[in-house]
Amino acid sequence: MSTPVPAPVLAIDIGGTKLAAAVVEPGGRAVAYERVPTPADLDAEGLWRTLASVLDKVVAEAGAPGLGGVGVGCGGPMTWPAAEVSPLNIPGWRAFPLRERLRGRYPGLPVRVHNDAVCVAVGEHWRGAGRGRGNVLGMVVSTGVGGGLVLDGRLIDGASGNAGHIGHVVVDPEGPPCKCGGRGCLEAIARGPGLVAWAQEQGWRPGQPVTGVDLATDARRGHPVAAAAMRRAGRALGIAIASATHLCDLEVAAIGGGLSQAGALLFDPLEEALRTHARMHYARQVSVVPAALGQMSGLIGAAALVIAGDRYWNAD
Amino acid sequence: MSTPVPAPVLAIDIGGTKLAAAVVEPGGRAVAYERVPTPADLDAEGLWRTLASVLDKVVAEAGAPGLGGVGVGCGGPMTWPAAEVSPLNIPGWRAFPLRERLRGRYPGLPVRVHNDAVCVAVGEHWRGAGRGRGNVLGMVVSTGVGGGLVLDGRLIDGASGNAGHIGHVVVDPEGPPCKCGGRGCLEAIARGPGLVAWAQEQGWRPGQPVTGVDLATDARRGHPVAAAAMRRAGRALGIAIASATHLCDLEVAAIGGGLSQAGALLFDPLEEALRTHARMHYARQVSVVPAALGQMSGLIGAAALVIAGDRYWNAD
């Protein structure tokens, strides 16, 4: 628990494609923003130096204010709340002591680290599509499928800080194997590379180096296999959100990440599957919307771990 | 929020088969207990009078102590927290103002009503199989499949008091139709009458009036169809618990209700499906156990809505 911090907060978003940082005012407005591509070939210390230079730059850009704390969203897995991080897509960091290093760099300030998709959920609850609602699932649909849960107005951490993993809800017990070792998880079907692989098997641009964005573009142009792949993802998302809505009595699911920009191609089949399966009276009112803060959700949420810690931070 | 109540609490459990009540001490011990079969053919006022006589009897049996409050678990659906109840299996009560009537009968005392399966979850968290753990799913597998969620040490209500409905997590999107209007929900497969219907279609005691208990008995005796039906239920339960564990980062799932007494016939296939699908590192530690308080879970949980309201009651 903490009282709101009156000073701006340094917010950090660490993913496989970019290292981003912002200085966020207590009201939620970002007053400075910097990002660099995540270096693919640096070791742990090289990555740390790259991050540190981004942080110095964004703090200078904000006019070097007195900071109230540091909030971080980072790709998982990690220990929590100690935040020794081993992001799947950043092989240079394995059990890297991110929280400890940031504490050393910003002595005396609270430093709070959570999963990047959890920060998206927090950002959308605090200042985005879930604002004013008590029960919100935030999701990231991209290379993977991640998420975070705000229930009864508070961030849910679960036993080890891993609550919110909507990507590993089972949507088809006989479905494709998942990287987690299971089978038929939402992520196994709806992650961008999974969709691309499925479409290529069906004859869409076989053998070419393509991405989920290419797939969405071709689907929009009317390519039948590409469109079918988007329907497949939308349907899997709708089933998983129906299960989560029934289990958690959700009001809003806010979806961010690259694939969420596919619009009706994704959201129409999602809605159809959702309304087929979310049939309990209380579940019919759930709404599924794109993340309102776009690319900034994760940074705003990371800031909220500090600024609105009474709702979003339950650890030491 | 409330501070612990030092006086004993009147706990009530209202279901389609029985009306039960207990006087529960602040430490969680029941010092008096009464039950009657739920009258099948009474109107709303007749049911109320039957309940009232049970309450008078159990309070007298306890020595007519000064009560600290009234906690109730009642079959759903209901409005919450107002508790106008319309229990599926008690047709005489439709929008019956249970909380209001109890407040009139016990003026000045807190009266708190929740779903009966939610009370099982609370009871198991407070004094049962989930004691000392922060993240617990309590379940009832019987005529229906219900549940409740305790996460980060607190009961989750959700938007309308309906969080915990594990019975409507989708375990097979192409599965049998569910009474909720959806398809392939856990409850559609694993509820007692659903299992019996499936087994009868496969040739087990066709046309006879039989129950889930008969099915479990025959399965134990080695009847292949009856055993297959139990495996089918166990597998569906395992898949749903895997999804819930991934989504909510659970530590314990405690299963009560008639079918939970089938032992290894149900729990072995449950474990097999759970371990197949719950593969994220953090999910491997989840344990699934029978409810430790047996038939008393719901009453103890109902009492805890008042006695430990800081954790289990978030409404007015």
| CATH C-level of the largest domain in chain A | Alpha Beta
CATH fold-level topology of the largest domain in chain A: Nucleotidyltransferase, domain 5
Secondary-structure content class of chain A: alpha/beta
Q: Which spans of chain A of ≥5 residues are poorly predicted at pLDDT below 50?
A: none
- Largest sheet, strands/sense/barrel of chain A: 5 strands, mixed
Q: What is the chain-wise order of helices and strands of chain A?
A: EEEHEEEHEHEEEHHHHEHEHH
Mean pLDDT of chain A: 96
End-to-end CA span of chain A:
9 Å
CATH homologous superfamily annotation of the largest domain in chain A: ATPase, nucleotide binding domain
Helix content of chain A: 25-40%
What is the gyration radius of chain A calculated from CA atoms?
A: 19 Å
Number of domains of chain A: 2
Protein chain pair with the most extensive contact, residues per chain: A-B, 53 and 53 residues
* Strand order across the largest sheet of chain A: 3-2-1-4-7
Keywords (chains A, B): Kinase, Transferase
Protein name (chains A, B): N-acetylmannosamine kinase
Organism (chains A, B): Actinomadura macrotermitis
EC number (chains A, B): 2.7.1.60
How does this model look, in words?
2 copies of one chain form a homodimer. In chain A, strands 3-2-1-4-7 form a 5-stranded mixed beta sheet, with helices on both faces. In chain A, strands 10-9-8-11-12 form a 5-stranded mixed beta sheet, with helices on both faces. A two-stranded antiparallel ribbon of chain A has the order 5-6. Chain A folds into 2 domains: 9-115 and 296-312, ATPase, nucleotide binding domain (Nucleotidyltransferase, domain 5); 129-292, ATPase, nucleotide binding domain (Nucleotidyltransferase, domain 5, 2-Layer Sandwich). Chain A has helices at 44-61, 98-105, 116-127, 186-190, 192-201, 212-220, 224-248, 264-277, 297-307, 309-312; strands spanning 9-14, 18-24, 30-37, 69-74, 84-85, 96-97, 111-115, 136-141, 145-151, 154-155, 252-256, 287-290. By secondary structure, the first copy, chain A, is an alpha/beta fold. The longest helix of chain A is centred in the C-terminal third of the chain and has 25 residues, at 224-248. The termini of chain A are close together. Helix content of chain A is 37%, strand content 19%. Chains A and B meet through helix 7 and helix 8 of A and helix 7 and helix 8 of B.
